[in-house]
Task: structure prediction
Amino acid sequence: MPTQTLMLPGPAGQIAVHISGPSDGPAVLMNHSILSSSMMWHEQASLLAATGWRVICADTRGHGQSECMTQSCTMDDLVADSLSVLDGLHIQKAHYVGLSLGGMSGIGFGIQHADRLLSMVLCDCRADMPAALGDVWNDRMASAIQDGCQSLANVTTERWFGSEFLAANPATAKAFKDTIGLTQINGFLSCAKAIQGLHYLPQVDQIKVPTSLIAGANDGPLPMAMQAMQQIISGSHLDIIPNAGHLPNIDQTQLFNAALMRHFFHHFTGSQA
Result:
């Protein structure tokens, strides 16, 4: 299915959005992980577009084709970027899908802009950032400043997928390593600092839109963090994807897609008013 790429004005520069599916379909805004781009949603965007949704995959500031005029931002700034996308496309209400960084900012969007949402799918994310977890980003930022984001490619993909998956899927490994290497330093620094300042947990109970949570079973502490969120978000549902890491949409595509489509067929609506 053909994809249209548009550049929209955002708080930190132009935001690249990649749009597919019928123009009159209910809108789905998809946001990706740090050091990735909208490329990570290719399979899911194609599936949703083919089944009637208007899919908008946004490149986070400084990632993919989006600009980033800052070296620091907050998670609220990333929420504002998503709001700029919906406003720029004149979309009143949308479904939201976010993974990792995109899930974190999605939590903020759900708290602050529930009136713009039809539903949310939050994947492999958390609502707070304990100091010990936040501190690991300091070395990563130092490495990016000294040697560029390409210096993070091998260690990041191994953390996301594991060496066995990378060896068995060389094309996927190359695609993600290339995408990491092309990430702008400003974009990585800004988003890493936003992650370090993540502090939405006290407000998570304010999320009232229909919400599904998805986590890879092998993604460190995140399944437990998402179980805790599921207890707080009224009416939410959690799917744990077995044998999956930080990007279950990539390493367990069929199981992830099944969970995703259960959400969308349950919450399907043609209304954007």
Q: What stands out?
A: The chain has a mean pLDDT of 96. The domain at 4-128+199-266 is CATH 3.40.50.1820 (Rossmann fold). Residues 219 and 245 are 5 Å apart (CA to CA). The longest strand covers residues 13-20.
